[in-house]
């Protein structure tokens, strides 16, 4: 800390710490900011300010202009031929009129940057030590090697990096996302900046790591009095971490004010819609659809017969991969059962084995031990004909709708493909089925003859679901179906999925890392950690009375979980 | 283990150094063994192809009535060159003596093949290495300028040059260089093809189209690195733009660039033939040309295997460079 303080004091340009008796002057003030790429203006007349030691969240969905604003503040738009108008002042000094050379002195030293994806934000071919040393060498006054090492050591200690010597020797690909983000934050605070611009700092991280990183940013803000400009699409994060928020849509400010006010009494319709769609803020978002489904399951054609066997059963499945010279048990003695017409969630962070378990169900993994049955029939990867039959009844919806659709096919062709492959009916029937599936996911007819590139993320995921539905399956494996989507889009997709379950009696295996979503949509769940079952049971029981420490940590890391009462 | 050493931008980390050095040595040994096998296979293949060609100068001479050899003399000559043996046995004998450094005698001059090639190789190697070095230098300058010059007409010119270089034929460049440098400016003499000036001009002729290919790959790779998150983060950290290019963009871009250097080597060797003709140099190109005309099989065989050997060695060096340039390749499939 003292070194960071010294480093800061060596440069006269930086204002001294604010006098606590005065109201905090805005550290960063943005006034009437407009950004245009060519003739297209993407940010319209945006104004906000960040006070010393406080956090302001810029909230918005993809395309709202929030990242463009962050880059305008950091002057990182130059290479993109963008035109910036308006005023940006930092500590009372106008930034927009500075020459590049003058601005360079502010970068890093006064304005720190924490990037979105730690995995790609450090140079992959240079050691962490080399990059840390390079960052330290930019601090004025750190001329001697010993000074730089002290700076690096202090910063690494401050962000809680364990075993710094090993980290310094490592290359980025040898570290986890959480470790890399700590390194990046360490490098950002090393010169003692007054403002940190954090662009979705945790969206690429697991939920428990996400919480640690956000806690760290909170601590740094409080202890070092740093102002934080937090860019996020996640309302829950903003609600829990920022003192003030600015809600952006299409490059315009929809609402701005203190966090408590915007979240308790949102004035704009957009803010209200956004808030309603955050899973962590409303556990009962889909309660009515699910109640209708339950009513149909007790009577009528979809009714369950008493004593009916579970539709999908995994018992004691194990799968080991050989990585280099050691064996990694990706799935270790995992069992679960899913009743017909219900949703079972496999929950876990990256590397927990949830995807391997799902792939096993599709017959894509050869099991070392255990059995999987669907509708009483065993899944056997060696039985090609059996698998073909199985997959008629069991379909998957992948995580990333941007890569799971063939870009050369039209929407209709994509949805019809499984029907062609299984030679279902004649042309007319296939066309009818295709139209039915696209209706079922409520995809506007205007886009059905287009190709995926012309569709939004949400529309693409609807196409993927329609494709899975075309064969009239009775089980869908949903592999993180909404994790690549904005919250409002996510809510729409979840609603479609639950309505389909109500109307068609589908059985879902729902893979997710997001416990907020799981609580909204699943009936039962299995929590996986490093390939083993940590906890399982009904969603209600697990959420009200988690038995395992890890489950408790997962639940605690649902953003805004603790604020539900305040915000609702 | 002091922090000082850790912070140095070393490619091999000291503490695990012994183990990683052992791994690297094993990798290098495996790759070298493979390279040797490739050269031997090249020898066998070229030998068989040449043996399959109809006729050879010996038979032509022996059978011609003017020569007036007796049958006994013919048999003796055939025996001297080993032509009375089955082809596979000839191959084994030839390969065996080649491995001992004896490449046989030229059919047209009766000099040892090693002497024939040895006289020419110096000139060609000087030309080829100078050309390759010049090509890399030109490519590096163009590549760096493409990132260091801000957007504008000058940058556009730098980016257009490689395409222009590529589309100009070798002999045109050579003739223009001779006209301008030797005839116009008198910088080197046309009479002495081995003078430094002449060598440099010949190398430049060869280097220009080759540099274009390297530059194109380098510029694309640099552009791609520039679009990566780490480049933006380094800039945001306050690193001056020039240093971002030198420290962050260049090294990740070297991998594809080094690969293409290995590929264009063939062009340098092939192009040297034309260039040697233009500049009146005696090199491997001239020797090969004469050997083809005279059907001088031993010289041809040695020349082709020599070129293959140079190719294999350069690509071996490049393979060995990969894990040094990119730590992610260490201990992966690519470096087995």
Radius of gyration of chain A from CA coordinates: 26 Å
Can you tell me the number of structural domains of chain A? 2
The unreliable regions of chain A are 1-18, 561-568
Q: Mind telling me the CATH class of one domain in chain B? A: Mainly Alpha
User: Shape of chain B, please?
Assistant: flat
Largest sheet of chain A: 6 strands, mixed
Quick one: CATH class of the largest domain in chain A?
Answer: Alpha Beta
Query: Percent helix among the residues of chain B?
Result: over 70%
Label the structural class of chain A.
alpha/beta
Task: Describe the protein's architecture and organization.
The complex is a heterodimer of chains A (568) and B (336). Chain A is α/β, with parallel strands linked by helices and 568 residues long. Chain A folds into two domains: 276 residues, 3-Layer(aba) Sandwich (Rossmann fold), CATH 3.40.50.300; 269 residues, Rossmann fold. Chain A is 38% helix and 24% strand. In chain A, β11 and β12 form a beta hairpin. In chain A, α7 packs parallel to α8, α12 runs parallel beside α18 and α16 crosses α17. In chain A, 49% of the residues are buried. Chain B is mainly α and 336 residues long. Chain B contains 13 helices and no strands. At the A-B interface, β6, α4, α5, α6 and α7 of A face α1, α10 and α11 of B.
């Amino acid at each position: 800390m003292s070194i960071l303080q010294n480093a800061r004091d060596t440069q006269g340009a930086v204002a001294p710490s604010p006098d606590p008796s005065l109201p905090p002057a805005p550290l960063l003030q943005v006034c009437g900011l407009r950004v245009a790429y060519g003739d297209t203006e993407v940010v319209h007349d945006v104004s906000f300010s960040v006070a010393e030691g406080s956090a302001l969240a810029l909230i918005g969905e993809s395309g709202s202009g929030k990242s463009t604003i962050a880059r305008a503040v950091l002057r990182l738009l130059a290479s993109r031929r963008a035109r910036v108008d308006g005023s940006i002042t930092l500590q009372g000094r106008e930034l927009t009129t500075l020459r590049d050379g003058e601005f360079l002195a502010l970068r890093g030293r006064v304005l720190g940057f924490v990037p979105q994806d730690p995995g790609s934000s450090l140079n992959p071919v240079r050691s962490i030590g080399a990059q840390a040393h390079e960052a330290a060498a930019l601090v004025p006054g750190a001329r001697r090697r010993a000074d730089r090492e002290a700076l690096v050591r202090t910063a690494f200690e401050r962000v809680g990096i364990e075993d710094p010597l090993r980290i310094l020797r490592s290359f980025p690909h040898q570290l986890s996302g959480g470790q890399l983000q700590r390194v990046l934050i360490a490098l950002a605070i090393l010169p003692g900046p007054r403002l940190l611009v954090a662009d979705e700092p945790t969206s690429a991280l697991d939920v428990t790591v996400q919480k640690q990183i956000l806690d760290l940013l909170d601590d740094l803000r409080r202890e070092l009095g740093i102002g934080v400009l937090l860019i996020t699409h996640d309302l829950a994060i903003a609600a829990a971490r920022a003192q003030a928020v600015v809600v952006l849509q299409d490059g315009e400010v929809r609402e701005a004010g203190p966090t408590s006010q915007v979240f308790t009494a949102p004035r704009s319709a957009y803010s209200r819609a956004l808030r309603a769609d955050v899973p962590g803020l409303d556990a009962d978002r889909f309660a009515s659809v699910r109640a209708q489904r339950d009513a149909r399951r007790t009577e009528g054609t979809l009714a369950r017969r008493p004593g009916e066997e579970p539709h999908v059963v995994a018992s004691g499945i194990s799968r080991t991969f050989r990585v280099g010279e050691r064996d990694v048990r990706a799935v270790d003695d995992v069992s679960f059962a899913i009743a017909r017409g219900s949703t079972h969630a496999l929950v876990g962070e990256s590397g927990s084995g949830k995807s391997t378990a799902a792939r096993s169900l599709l017959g894509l993994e050869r099991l070392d031990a255990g059995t999987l049955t669907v509708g009483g029939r065993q899944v056997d990867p060696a039985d090609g004909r059996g698998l073909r039959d199985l997959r008629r009844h069991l379909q998957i919806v992948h995580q990333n709708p941007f890569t799971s659709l063939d870009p050369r096919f039209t929407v209709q062709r994509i949805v019809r493909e499984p029907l062609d492959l299984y030679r279902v009916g004649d042309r007319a029937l296939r066309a009818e089925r295709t139209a039915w599936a696209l209706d079922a996911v409520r995809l506007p007819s205007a886009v059905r003859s287009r190709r995926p590139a012309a569709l939004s993320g949400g529309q693409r995921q609807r196409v993927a679901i329609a494709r899975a539905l075309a064969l009239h399956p009775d089980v869908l494996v949903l592999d993180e179906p909404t994790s690549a989507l904005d919250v409002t889009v996510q809510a729409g997709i979840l609603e479609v999925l639950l309505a389909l379950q109500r109307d068609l009696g589908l059985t879902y295996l729902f893979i997710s890392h997001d416990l907020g979503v799981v609580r909204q949509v699943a009936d039962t769940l299995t929590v996986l950690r490093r390939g083993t079952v940590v906890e399982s049971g009904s969603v209600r029981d697990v959420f009200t009375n988690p038995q395992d420490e890890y489950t408790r940590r997962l639940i605690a890391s649902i953003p805004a979980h603790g604020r539900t009462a305040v915000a609702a | 283990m002091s922090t000082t050493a850790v912070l140095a931008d070393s490619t091999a980390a000291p503490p695990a150094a012994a183990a990683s050095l052992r791994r690297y040595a094993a990798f290098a040994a495996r790759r070298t063994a493979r390279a040797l096998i490739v050269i031997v296979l090249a020898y066998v293949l070229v030998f068989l192809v040449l043996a399959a060609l109809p006729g050879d100068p010996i038979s032509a001479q022996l059978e011609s009535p003017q020569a007036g050899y007796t049958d006994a003399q013919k048999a003796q000559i055939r025996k001297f060159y080993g032509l009375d043996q089955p082809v596979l046995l000839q191959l084994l004998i030839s390969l065996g003596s080649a491995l001992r450094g004896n490449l046989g005698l030229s059919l047209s001059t009766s000099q040892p093949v090693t002497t024939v090639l040895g006289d020419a190789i110096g000139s060609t190697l000087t030309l080829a290495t100078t050309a390759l070095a010049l090509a890399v230098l030109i490519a590096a300058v163009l590549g760096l300028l493409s990132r260091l010059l801000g957007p504008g007409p000058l940058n556009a010119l730098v980016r257009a040059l490689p395409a222009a270089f590529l589309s100009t034929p070798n002999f045109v460049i050579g003739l223009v260089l001779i006209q301008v440098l030797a005839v116009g400016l008198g910088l080197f003499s046309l009479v002495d093809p081995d003078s430094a000036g002449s060598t440099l001009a010949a190398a430049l002729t060869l280097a220009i189209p080759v540099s274009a290919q390297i530059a194109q790959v380098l510029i694309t790779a640099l552009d791609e690195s520039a679009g990566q998150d780490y480049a933006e983060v380094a800039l945001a950290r306050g690193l001056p733009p020039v240093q971002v290019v030198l420290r962050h963009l260049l090294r990740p871009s070297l991998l594809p660039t080094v690969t293409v250097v290995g590929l264009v080597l063939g062009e340098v060797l092939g192009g040297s033939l034309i260039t040697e003709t233009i500049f009146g140099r005696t090199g491997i190109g001239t020797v090969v040309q004469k050997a083809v005309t005279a059907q001088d099989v031993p010289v041809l065989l040695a020349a082709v295997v020599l070129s293959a050997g140079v190719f294999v060695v350069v690509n071996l060096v490049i393979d060995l460079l990969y894990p040094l340039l990119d730590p992610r390749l260490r201990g992966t499939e690519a470096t087995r």
